[in-house]
Amino acid sequence: MNVYQMYAHNGHQVGFWIVRDSWGNTLARVIEIEGATAGHKLPGRAPYHGNPRVLADFYSTSGKLLSQRSEVSCPGTYAYDLVQPSPELLAAMGFSVELPTAQPAAPAAVPPAASPAEAVPAATTFPYQDIRAHVEQGEWSVAQAFEVLKKLPKPWETAEWKAKRQDVLKDQCEGCGSQEPPLVLLNRQLPLSYPDVKTQVRNSILAELGRSVFDNITDEQAAAVMRSEKRQACPTCGIINIRSRKSMKPTFLCGRNHGFEQPVELDYYPIPKTTDRAKALQAAKNYLASVQLQAVLKANDEAVSRFALLESLAQSAEYVKMEAVTTLCRPCHYRARAEGIANKEWKLPLVPLISRFVFS
Predict the structure, then answer these.
(1) Structure confidence by residue, pLDDT tens digits, 169-223
(2) What DSSP assignment string belongs to 46-71?
(3) Which runs of E-coded beta strand occur in the chain?
(4) How far apart, in whole angstroms, are the C-alpha atoms of residue 313 and residue 110?
(5) pTM for the whole thing?
(6) 301-319 vs 142-151: helix axis angle to the nearest 10?
C-alpha cells in the first residue's frame, strides 16, 4: 500500500492525502479532518487526539466511486499526521499495509503424492525452474506440468512479488528524474507465452523444411492432384473472362479489351483459377508441400510442445527476477510504450532447430 501526500499548485501542502495500491490505483481520498477541508494550508502534524472526525471517499481498483464523504472512526489517543497517515489510521479505514519486508504468503496446499505438484518445494513462490527440471528430465509430461502451472497464482499477485517490487522501485524516474508519484516499474522484457513460443518453433521448422520439401515434389506428383476443365478463352491472353457482342465487331471481347472473332478452348485450372499450366503446377506443389509439412508437425507435436514449454518456463524464471526493469513516472512510461522502447518480448534466435527434433 502506498500513501502519497498531495500538493497545491503553489507548492504548499494541503490537508488531505490519498491511498493507492502498488499499481497506482486510488483506493481512498481523505477530504476532511476535523472540519479542515482539502485546499487549506495545514501543518504537517495536527494535534488531533482522541477520536477525530475524518471524511473520505472510497474507490474500487477499477476507479469506481464506492462511497462519498464516508466518516471513518479513528479511536485512540495519538496524533494523526495529515501528510503521512499512520498505520493505525489506515487500519481503521480498512486497509492492510504491506511493508517491503513482509514474508511471502504461504502457498496453497500441496497435492497428494500421486500428483506431480508434490515435487515442487513448498517455500517456492515461483517454481518455474523446478517445474522445468522435472519436464527436462522426463519425469513430467507437458500435460502434468500444466496441471501444476494452472494452480499457481499470477506472479504479481503474490506477497513476494510485491516485496521485491518495493525493493527495486527507485525514488525517482530514470527517464526524467521526476519524483512525483506514482512511479511504476517497466519490464523491458516480457516472457513469451507457451502458445507464442510454440508458434515460433513451428514457423521456424516450416521455414527450414519448406524449400527442401517443395523441391522434392516432381511435376508428375503435382499433376496427379491437379483438376482441370475445358473453357473458352481469349486467344491473345488466355483469360476466360470473355463476352460476345451481337452488333459490333470483333464479335468477342475479353476483360483486357482484346477483340477476337473466335475464342479458343483451353484447360482451365480452378485452383489457382488460371489457364497457365506452370502456375497450376506451382499451386499443386505448394499444396502437397503443405500437406507433408503439416504431417511432420503433427508427428512431432509432442517434441515441439516440450521444447516450447521449457523455453517459456526459462523466460518466466528470468522475468520474476525483476532484473530487466526500469523505474519511470507515468508520462515517461507512456512514451516508452508508445515509442516501442521497452517491453520488448523475447524472440527465439533464427537458428536451425532441425537437430532438436527427430522428424518422421
Answers:
(1) 999 998 888 888 889 888 877 788 888 888 888 888 888 788 888 888 888 888 8
(2) E---SS-EEEEEEE-TTS-EEEEEEE
(3) 2-7, 13-20, 26-33, 36-37, 45-46, 53-59, 65-73, 80-81, 183-187, 189-190, 229-233, 242-244, 252-254, 259-260, 264-268, 325-329, 344-345
(4) 20
(5) 0.52
(6) 30
